[in-house]
Amino acid sequence: MRGLDYRWIEALEAVITTGGFERAAQLLFVSQSAVSQRIKQLEKFLTQPVLIREQPPRPTLIGQKLLGFYQRVQLLESDLIPELSNETLPRVQRVSIATNADSLATWLLPALAPVMKSHQVEFNLAVFAEARTLDKLKNGEVVGALSLESKAIVGCDAQYLGRMDYVCVASPKFAQQHFPQGITRDALIRAPAVSFDQYDQLHRDFLQQNFNIPPDAIVHHHVASSEAFVNLALMSCAYCLIPKLQIEKELESGALVDLMPGFFMSFNLYWHHWQLETGLLKKITQAIISHSHVLLPK
Fold this sequence. Notes:
Elements: H1 6-18, H2 21-28, H3 32-46, E1 51-52, E2 58-59, H4 61-84, E3 93-99, H5 101-106, H6 108-118, E4 121-127, H7 130-138, E5 144-147, E6 156-170, H8 172-178, H9 185-190, E7 193-195, H10 201-211, E8 220-222, H11 226-234, E9 240-243, H12 248-253, E10 257-258, E11 265-274, H13 279-295
Parallel strand pairs: 3-4, 3-5, 7-8
Antiparallel strand pairs: 1-2, 5-11, 6-9, 6-10, 6-11
Helix pairs in contact: 1-2, 1-3, 1-4, 2-3, 6-13
């Protein structure tokens, strides 16, 4: 049986990367009809579409899995080809990682910085709520994911990184206005809060587990940025749960106050990645594990 032709997937990647068939053809130095034909051959081989033909084109679920697979193939080639040939110039290696916003805002970039400086690598750091990052690895869209889930999916490893501790904070002005008697159930129902998006379980669990408040009963801003959380709190627009690691300076200066001293919500963080890593991927895993073990409490 004939297997996949990597030129088909290369065409798919080019269309998605450039946003269209014409620019993909220019990137691959072939005609636009050749790009279209390769994708049609891929879809015929799989007996299902790999591309949603809109502007810009988007991959289907199977298309996403193929792109993730092709990314891993390219990384393996980048490690192997220089050993088999006389190539001296390193190739740019593209790596996609699914991360939660809080890790990106605190410790992940410093962990990856040495790899960025020492290798020809192009990172795509895709930000999702913790409950969704592992889905991106399952779909093949990324080669690694930060998740709260301890169980590894088939073909992957899950390695414990450390603990993320969240504290409930607000500006002194907001605290005086909304919580003059401290945190109470009635005050929480009236005070505006902020969370990452509708998939963010952190604030929902905080309200339900500690105060028996349905999350839909409060004013709840959705802001998909960890840095914006801090800004909203500093501007006295809302209270929020933020990693203590991220706001140590603000707490020390008094710009933010801990609304519940001694209380924090903790979550264990895991690095999920494909097994049998070599070369660059192995170095990325080592960098993430070593840096998180220094910075995150156990």
